[in-house]
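Input.
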Amino acid sequence: MSKLKSLFIRRADEKNSFKSDLLVLLIYTAGIIFVTCFHELWFDETQAWQIAKCASFKELFTYIPHYEGHPPMWHLFLSIFAKNGAPVDFTLKAINTVFCVIAMALLIFRSPFPKIVRYLLPFTFYFFYQYGVLSRPYSISMIAFFLMAIAYKDRNAHPWRYILAMTLLSLSTAFGLMIAGGLCIVWTFEIIAELIRNKKLKFFWKDMRFWSLCFILVIAVAVMLMIIPADNCYYIGADDGLSVFDRVIFLPFYEYLAAMPFESWSGILLGNYDINSIPAIGIVEIICGLAMWVGLSAFAVKNKKFFTFFLPYLIVTVVWAFKYVSIHHLGLGALLHIFLFWIMAEQEGGIAVPEFMKKLNSKVTSPSIRKFVIVAGSLICLAPVAYSVIASVLDMTHEVGLTCVADIIKENHLEDTNIMAMWDVKYEGDDDDDDDDEKIDRYLFATLEIPSAHRPIKESRTYLSGASAMIQPYFDKNIIMNFNADCPEDMYMHYQYKEDSEKIYSLWREKGLPDFIVGYCPIDDVYDEKTLEGVRYLPVKMIDYCTVGKVCVNHSCIYFYMRDDLFDEYPQFEWINDQTGNVFERKPQKAE
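Output.
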């Protein structure tokens, strides 16, 4: 068991390791800078920058949080640079890199873990690639978690240090607010129990901890009021049709809940669409996840930190499993695991190992079994580092954003032409699981011409145009004719749906027909048959872009289209599918 404890507690001879600590931090910094030089900004990154650039300070507090679902701190910080003309690519990456380096400096120099842990953690998937290369507010969350861990030991003597660190976490992300809320609830009960034991409960108002908790409560209530979703706010799962009861009885949600701890480190299902349908992997992850739930809880119980760990972790994992989760959220779970072992390692006597682990260790005497456990455990622990390397290489060798579309527009001086970009369209049959040969797959027509036949449209969500949000940061004006047509100064995506699409279509029609189209657009739903008579758009550029998971990329392919009567005006473009000769029947139009 001494070997197990040595994995969590820094040895005395490692306390004077400034040079090696600094070297690791420099390697981390150099690695982040190197990979980000190749990284193309993705939607989440450009969306945040455009909000910071275009939204007023009033909107950052009163409007944006209701649709973005996060506190305004990240946007407010970016606005200092975005509103003053700073270049998006360099500035966003530089800001995020600085925050990440600060966070890793706290981890490397101040954590109580041995070298092997302190030197490997910065290079794991979430702390290097997901929060280091991709620029999001989670870099601030890392700083907050490590400051909380540093302040935890003396939280009763110096409550404001701990509270301010939790406040920073609360202001970084909505999930950070949930975790901080859980920790505050547990601490409140600990304080009440202490005051009762010491017969000082009636003098609670003299306790500085009470006032510090009141402070963060005010901040938390203010943030919650800010981020309450608007009635027409769109989010993933907003229209999945599942009631509360449906979610409670839906078995896969419990499978997600079981696998969450493992997914925060060595799991590979979430965000890797090519392999998440393999049942065997799911079964293995559920078993490993349940084992981690048991192990983490056992350590927390033995070290009298059960509620400190279990309540905040249960809150966020239930929300992730039953409501909404994306791959980048799970790093917060990893941070909470580190926080747990950090505060246990700094308590008097260090980390106490659960009794059943001691007994299990004494009973396993077979050298082969012990070697297998060591090898398997090592591979599992090293997997997040491997994922970080794989993801970084994939990011550097693949198109991640739509910067190439901005380059096409700039290089061919198309800024003043009518450019339409794809928006979110819900077609009939999109939610059906069964294949139907009679249905027309709308994605087939991305390789052919526009307009073309497609499924009947159930709902057109004109505000939801992620492609536009990824293109706009590279221009000083709104160059997309259909992007926020009723508020063209807002060059970010409004998470709105349930709007009057016909009213928005009328604004598009006032601008005439598009000259160029980015991605497949059902323009026959916008313009009447007479207007489209003899009009067709042909693909002249193919854009293959992707999102990066832990071990693979998830590809998307769209086309850049040009109206065919413009080929003489822009001879540099060629119809890339003219050799096929495929022309599909147009969708029949209803007479107006």
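Residues 434-447, 578-592 have pLDDT under 50 and may be disordered.
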